[in-house]
Amino acid sequence: MGLWPYLGKKFRATMTTAARPTFEPAKGGMGRGERDLSALSKQYSARDLASHTRLKYRDHGQSTTEELRNRDFRRELEDRERAARDKRTSSSSGGSGSGSSSSSSSNNAIRDSGSSSSSSSSSKKPRLDQIAPSNLDADDPQDDDDDASDSDDSDDEAVLFAELERIRRERAEEDARKQQERQEQEERIRMENIISGNPLLNLAAAPKSDMKVKKRWDDDVVFKNCAASEPDKSEKSFINDSLRSEFHKRFMEKYVK
């Protein structure tokens, strides 16, 4: 009881305060070689600065809503087409003084020639459609020949249609017969599988077979039962195992044992 207060004071004096919460963190002093560390830093990065600080609006001439509402796009398109057409005609004229008059006269000549050619073609069209009766013989039975040829054509078409119908009917019958044979074959195979798969139904018809155990897949491997099945020393056979080969055994007996 006498030493406990002293030991307790000593223990409390040497106890660390690192685990206690820091409500007031440490600050640098203003002594020699020191400066006030509590002041905020005045350095900023260029990435921290704001990029856009004001809103940008469309100015006059930048296709605002009011401008687009008041514009006449149809009229502007017609003006551009007219200007392009005038530029083409001026470039084709060649810049000569009499270019416009010559072009107008040539246009008139082309128009006149076109009208004359159209009138001549219109006047020639009925003459081309008509058939001159002078080169036909009056005694030729033209109508009778036409009627006969039409009747022959109709008879030929009837024969062709009948032949086509017969071929279609034969093909349909052949397809139906093949389909029936296929179904019968599938049914026969299914019944055979059912009968052969049931040992009770196939017990009498089953061939007499001796009950032999099938050979395992690992009967002829190299590393099966290495200790039990040692090869005979008198026989020289190749073994795909370096530890069980004859050379390895002779080497171990000569140099190791």
Task: Explain the overall architecture.
By secondary structure, the chain is an all-alpha fold. It has 6 helices and no strands. About 4% of the residues have low confidence.
Short description:
This protein is mainly alpha-helical. It has helices at 4-14, 65-70, 73-93, 99-129, 142-197, 246-255.
Describe the main β-sheet briefly.
none
Portion in strands: under 5%
Quick check: average pLDDT? 72
Measured as a percent range, the helix fraction is: 40-55%
Using only C-alpha atoms, the radius of gyration works out to 58 Å
The helix/strand series, from N terminus to C terminus, equals: HHHHHH
Name the overall outline: flat
Provide the low-confidence segments as ranges: 116-125
How far apart the termini lie comes to 78 Å
Strand elements, count: 0
Contiguous helical run count: 6
Structural class: mainly alpha
Question: Helices, strands, pairings?
Answer:
Blueprint lengths: L3 H11 L50 H6 L2 H21 L5 H31 L12 H56 L48 H10 L2
Protein name: Protein CWC15 A
GO molecular function, one term: RNA binding
InterPro entries: Cwf_Cwc_15 (IPR006973)
